[in-house]
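Throughout our pipeline, every protein is held as a single compact record rather than as scattered files. Nothing more is needed to write down the fold, since each code stands for a local backbone conformation. For reference, a complete record is included directly beneath this paragraph.
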Amino acid sequence: MNMKEMFHNKKILITGGTGSIGREIVKQLLEFHPAQIRIFSRDDTKQFELEHELRSPENVRFLIGDVRDLNRLKMAMEDINFVLHAAALKHVSACEYNPFEVVKTNVDGTQNVIEAALEKNVERVINISTDKAINPTNTLGASKLLAERIVAAAHSFRGFRRTIFASVRFGNVLGSRGSVTELFKRQIIKRCPVTITHPDMTRFIMSVPQAVHLALKALCMTQGREVFILKMPVARISDLAEAVMEELAPIYGFKREEIEMKTIGKKAGEKVHEELMTLEESEAALETEEMFIVLPESTQVIGVNDLEDRVYLGARPAEKREYHSKMEKPIVKEQIKILLRETGVLHATV
């Protein structure tokens, strides 16, 4: 089913709907004329700003609430068809120093979304995850791994209910709130040194629109318990910094050579390289031209083996290997510049 058919005249709830990803989900969904979009978040100021940005369309509702509050979620999911769960604490350093809060939001909050969706008989739920969930070395990654697992396991206790659960796994989303490109832009505008944590650091990168397109496409394709992963290029953070500097310096009336680049060392919990998919996951994964589909493992807990019955249009078995940013060939600086221009990252307000 295509997106127009899937979302037309449907009711959709977006948790974390005023964040970078949530806002873009709203904008893309509005193109398909849903019956109603409910934006669920705890920041009334961001809701106020987004309401004015969208010019108050009649089919958008703004709900103040926290995913930590199960009863509030149940109220918000009344008569909802689809849920896109984007609410999370996501900054590595902040999560390292506040692990109890991370569990309450990223783990307990996800469990609350699952329980509310089951009680209200929601059709489909997509959980938004991160590549930091793979072999996690930090609190954020560990919490998102657990969130992925409880979303997949929800099928084992859904009983007679129709709800389908799946996850999408993002890389570094360029231009999202708090992303490294936002930091570089602020430093360049103020003519401060541009800071990188490690000269050899690599990341899988994607734009906000690409990330949201993946989430919406996964919602259309899911048959339950998969993890959908966009095929993303790898970039060195030092090359990304150079590209941003070379693009922005002339706009603000000075030369690239006038900006210093400074290495400050890794932050707490930060990896030098990231993984997109483990070897074990690749052994049960399919791929299309634009994404990987990690299929659910057959386990005694779930009690089914439905892999042979799953059909995804244009999919083929994925190459069985570890997908690690250190092992992938990074794109060159000129390719990064093209990506920045195409996605409009440099022209967004800081």
